[in-house]
Design a protein that fits this description.
alpha+beta; Jelly Rolls; eight-stranded antiparallel sheet; two-stranded antiparallel sheet; 14 helices; about 15% strand
Length: about 400
């Protein structure tokens, strides 16, 4: 009996030792173990011992998602430790600040202002000086997607709330989304987290598609929902799943189209007004197309009413214009204005600053073709002034 008892005791001690080794370090505040020991267990062993360790999202991405969730749901009191962790995980102070700026538009100014107070304490603690806006080139949004988005806003928002539509096009997408202080992928990741956390799944398909177009994988998108469940609650995460499912199914169906199929883009297909911040006057676009990888080519038909023109811009791999009808103007910066007419073909070399549009008294339509470099096929700049445009009128 003594041998049996000793064996049982030794076995119990060994088991206790193994359990102690498997138990994760304590992360939750000491009060949690006194008040809610179960919460302490799930915090240590599941949230930080399992979820934060999963490779489906990098530690930096998990910090982005977590801070975005806390800011967008107004949980400023929890921000300090997670901002410290985010900085340790590679998030730059400028990116933390831009995350707060971005979420002011998606969860409201009060949440953003409350977040600033908490983050300022962390920055002072770490001797991080005042943050400045980046002077890098602005992010260029994909032209076809922007035309479709703008057309949707003009058709569905402008009739009821014209100022909201104008601010959406000019400030939200015309300014905020183009700021280089956060990458395009990070902005979509932050936006997804905020929409899930605030229970707004109806907005999720647009932003999930945008995120995946910007490089977020299906696995990463799924993991965002899983991670947010711990910081915004299971009901919010569960409500987001059907929206993600629809996005995944739609993208899979598109991927099933045979790559060697001939595709025809019909005349006038997808006709919409061109974005006002890139054009002057009345301009319509239609017939957008894009080749499948490894091809980088894409194009569209652009119709300018008399006097309408593009802003100054460049193309990383150049652009070809086929003048379909009417009479127009093309100018390279520092060179004379060129008049063009139906049947003319114009080649603009890579990175040459230029503009093009209709003549003062006659409309012009051209078919524009360009190749993308690293997903970008155009860099937009300031608008062509009336004086710059008028300078070419007497050269015909």
């Amino acid at each position: 009996m003594n041998k049996i008892a000793a064996t049982i005791a030794a076995s119990a001690l060994a088991t206790t030792g193994v359990e102690a080794e498997e138990r994760h370090p304590r992360v939750a505040p000491p009060a949690v173990y006194d008040v809610a020991p179960g919460l302490g267990h799930f915090t240590d062993d599941v949230l930080f011992g399992e979820v934060w360790e999963r490779a489906e999202l990098s530690p930096r991405d998990r910090s982005l998602v977590t801070v975005a969730t806390l800011v967008s749901t107004g949980k400023a009191a929890q921000l300090g430790n997670h901002v410290r962790r985010a900085l340790d995980n590679g998030l730059k102070p400028e990116e933390v600040g831009e995350l707060i700026t971005h979420l002011a538009f998606y969860s409201g100014w009060p949440n953003a202002m409350s977040a600033v107070t908490e983050v300022k304490e962390v920055f002072e603690e770490r001797r991080i000086g005042p943050v400045a806006s980046s002077d890098a080139n602005r992010i260029q949004l994909e032209a076809a997607a922007e035309v479709a988005r703008g057309a949707n806003v003009d058709a569905n928002i402008a009739p009821t709330a014209p100022m909201l539509a104008e601010l959406t096009n000019r400030v939200l997408f015309g300014d905020l989304w183009q700021r280089p202080d956060l990458s395009a992928r990070d902005r979509t990741l932050v936006t997804m987290a905020a929409l899930i956390a605030n229970g707004q799944p109806e907005q999720l398909p647009f932003h999930t598609n945008r995120a995946m177009d910007n490089g977020l994988t299906r696995q990463e998108a799924s993991e965002v929902v899983t991670h947010v469940a711990f910081y915004a609650g299971w009901p919010r995460a569960m409500s987001a799943v059907p929206a993600l499912t629809k996005v995944f199914e739609t993208r899979e169906a598109s991927a099933l189209v045979a790559p060697d199929d001939v595709r025809v883009t019909r005349a006038g297909e997808g006709r919409a007004a061109a974005p006002e911040h890139y054009f002057t006057g009345k301009v319509e676009t239609s017939g957008f197309y894009r080749g499948d990888a490894p091809a980088r080519i894409g194009g569209a038909t652009v119709s300018f009413m008399a006097g309408a023109r593009t802003a100054w811009h460049t193309h990383p791999l150049g652009q070809t214009l086929l003048i379909v009808s009417g009479k127009g103007l093309v100018q390279k910066e520092g060179a004379p204005v060129e008049w063009v007419g139906a049947g003319d073909v114009v080649w603009i070399p890579p990175n040459v600053r230029h503009w093009h549009g209709a003549s003062p008294n006659e409309a012009m339509t051209h078919f524009a073709v360009a190749e993308a470099l690293d997903g970008n096929n155009v860099t937009w700049m300031e608008k062509v002034t009336d004086d710059e445009y008028a300078a070419g009128q007497a050269i015909e």
